Amino acid sequence: MAHTLGLTQPANIQHPKISFAAKEIDVAEWKGDILAVGVTEKDMSKDENSKFQNSILKKLDGLLGGMLAEVSSEEDFTGKAGKSMVLRLPSCGSKRVGLIGLGKTASYPASFQRLGEAVAAASKTAQANSVAIILASSEDLSNESKLSTASAIASGTVLGIYEDSRYKSEPRKPKLNSVDIIGLGTGPELEKKLKYAENVSSAIIFGRELVNSPANVLTPAALAAEASNIASLYSDVLSANILSAEQCKELKMGSYLGVAAASANPPHFIHLCYKPSSGPIKTKLALVGKGLTFDSGGYNIKTGAGCSIDIMKTDMGGSAAVLGAAKALGQIKPPGVEVHFIVASCENMISGTGMRPGDIITASNGKTIEVNNTDAEGRLTLADALVYACNQGVDKIVDLATLTGACIVALGPSIAGVFTPSDDLAKEVFEASEVSGEKFWRMPLEESYWESMKSGVADMVNTGGRQGGAITAALFLKQFVDEKVQWMHIDLAGPVWNDKKRVATGFGIATLVEWVLKNSS
């Protein structure tokens, strides 16, 4: 990324690659910095003599002379989710033994991803190089569940250890470089699953870094350069076409160009295409991401408490999900599916050349829009992006956007809203989310609400009243999608950003990759 205003340049940090290995060994034989055991509340139950009943905990406690049972009782550690305890053992093969709480039960990928994250946190504290992870109870897991569990643990560890310090004067590097996953099997299928987790986690980190980057560094041109770089890295399956403002004008993208008009940084329309190097194409998909690298609100400028103008660099979170998915799929190379990755990237700024409230703009499908709020700009860029996606001859489109504050009010900070008229497409994406562990909730597309979007002088206005704002935004987008194409809109305004840690989450990437793979198979 080239530096611009403020002479800011992100440090080029080469994070050490974590080597994952699946092993079937006795926990007593493992040697390293931390042996971490994932435990449920049931695993922590003890007999009348205050001894563990779980076989693995019983063995470890025996090796430690009863210290594990004793300390867990003293610290009132019962295996609750989010709780952990770590013992330092200078005379043992493992320097430390940690118990990581999984809660009452652990059967979903999200639980095991949190286990990986907790192990990563413990390894940071201890400055550990090598870690082993085992579940106290894994005997009831099917072979398929063991594969997905190992993958979730690996993903959680990689994402948990990662810290974006590119913009700090003294960047930090984690030390963890080796993780053994014990007791979940071995063999090529498991190794393949761990490699998949590594690829997707790498893509999520890429997505996080895009969203974390400030608008003075990540301009529309810089975002386009990042997209082109992905295509160059995986040129056997990915190609890039970056359209200039002039080319967009030829395609009559008046809605998108209206938003971009005020900025000194010109717009860049990004189109990556994934095609497998061999074999027939069964399905054509499009992933469309909102790409506002900064949103001032325009003449309806963001003001007052809760306007979040200070984090409007995150308004390209949808594009980060789309480009992150492109990176992962470039590495995984699924057969039988063609995927178009589309981002209408620009800034929403204020100047004498900018779009005004009351202006009427014309989208590339000929529909006219009366702009009654310049801060409802994301949907204007998406309008032309969706028309462009339909023109690629795709069967299904998923668009992702940090579109409305209304969706955060409705679903809170960790759940994305899903809008689609297609039950089949909803089923596909929700099945993918069960694997990824990301949270989505289907919202209604209430057609009667379209009344509030009607204009007296144009085909529509770009925003309705405050009530049902996320729904009317989705209904607006629907006007730019061909009826023959299955379409879904995902409003990820909440989960794209972790407000407590003040960092991006990479939300959406894992689910998109899973969805594409389901269409591939």
Give the strand tally: 19
Backbone CA Rg: 25 Å
State mean pLDDT (0 to 100 scale).
95
The CATH architecture of the largest domain can be named as 3-Layer(aba) Sandwich
The CATH class assignment of the largest domain is Alpha Beta
Question: How many separate structural domains?
Answer: 2
The fraction of residues assigned to DSSP E strands is 15-25%
The major pleated sheet works out as: 8 strands, mixed
Keywords: Aminopeptidase, Hydrolase, Metal-binding, Protease
Organism: Gossypium darwinii
Protein name: Cytosol aminopeptidase domain-containing protein
Family: Belongs to the peptidase M17 family.
Provide a descriptive summary of the structure in words.
The protein has 521 residues and is of the alpha/beta class. Helices cover 34% and strands 20% of the residues. It has 2 domains: 19-188, Leucine Aminopeptidase, subunit E, domain 1; 222-232 and 274-347 and 372-450 and 468-520, Aminopeptidase (3-Layer(aba) Sandwich), CATH 3.40.630.10. It is elongated and about 80 Å long. A hairpin with a 5-residue loop joins strand 11 and strand 12 (368-370). The protein has an 8-stranded mixed sheet with strand order 7-8-10-9-13-17-14-15, sandwiched between helices. A 6-stranded mixed sheet has the order 1-6-5-2-4-3, with helices on one face. The mean pLDDT is 95. Homohexamer (dimer of homotrimers). This is Cytosol aminopeptidase domain-containing protein.
